[in-house]
Amino acid sequence: GFDGINLDFENIYREDKDKLTRFVSRIAAALHEQGVVVSLDVTVPQGSDTWSQCYDRKSLAAAVDYVMVMTYDETWRSSLRSGSVASLNWVERGLRDTLAEVPAEKLLLGLPFYMREWEEPADGQGPAKATTLSMPDAERKIKEKNLTLQWLEDKGQYYTEYYEQDKRYRIWLEDERSIAAKVALVGPYRLAGVTGAENHLF
């Protein structure tokens, strides 16, 4: 009795790009026969073979009803340098690049409902490591640590940091204001809508 199904295939060999397109096309055709709406997740166009170049976005968009572009993980959890999950400028650039291959009326803007707290040496000499936070996690952290927030206009996000035991902790926040700034892109780009992710483990 489902209205639709969302497909999410990630970390694919670039040489399997055409196989993925054929597979998705067959799935979509079978589901369309049952009157089921089909959407598919893709990453923003970038350089990585297995994370970005593995999608034939134009052909995939022709096969499904909607394409959801994952405009998050600008800075991956495994990164050795701290950074935002989805700063506004990065999201908009990824959106524009995706629109070069996917029609606006089929494109859904995928937004993160999570962020990361980065721990790094206080002197900046050494790698960072991340812990993923939900929005409620972040709210509790801000209250517990009595943190001061700074709005970063270029990032479209609040930023905060604190120090403990020779460690610096940094958070680029996703909250009501940052999400609203991203949602505001839907109208100007005439997108089909928005959707969100609670977590992303990579």
How would you portray this structure in words?
The chain is an alpha/beta fold and 202 residues long. 29% of the residues lie in helices and 29% in strands. It is built from six helices and ten strands. 30% of the residues are buried.
Q: Which band does the percent of strand residues land in?
A: 25-35%
Radius of gyration computed on alpha carbons? 18 Å
Could you state the order of secondary-structure elements as H and E?
A: EHEHEHEEEHEEEHHE
**Termini separation:** 32 Å
Sequence of strands across the biggest β-sheet: 1-2-3-4-10
Q: How many DSSP-defined strands? A: 10
Contiguous runs where pLDDT drops below 50 for at least 5 residues: none
Descriptive key words:
202 residues; alpha/beta; five-stranded parallel β-sheet; five-stranded antiparallel β-sheet; 6 helices; 29% strand; elongated
Question: How would you summarize this macromolecular structure in one to three sentences?
Answer:
This protein is an alpha/beta fold and 202 residues long. The protein is 29% helix and 29% strand.
SSE blueprint:
Blueprint: E1 4-7, H1 17-33, E2 37-43, H2 57-63, E3 66-70, H3 88-99, E4 107-112, E5 114-121, E6 129-134, H4 135-145, E7 150-152, E8 157-164, E9 167-172, H5 176-183, H6 186-189, E10 193-197
Parallel strand pairs: 1-2, 2-3, 3-4, 4-10
Antiparallel strand pairs: 5-6, 5-9, 7-8, 8-9
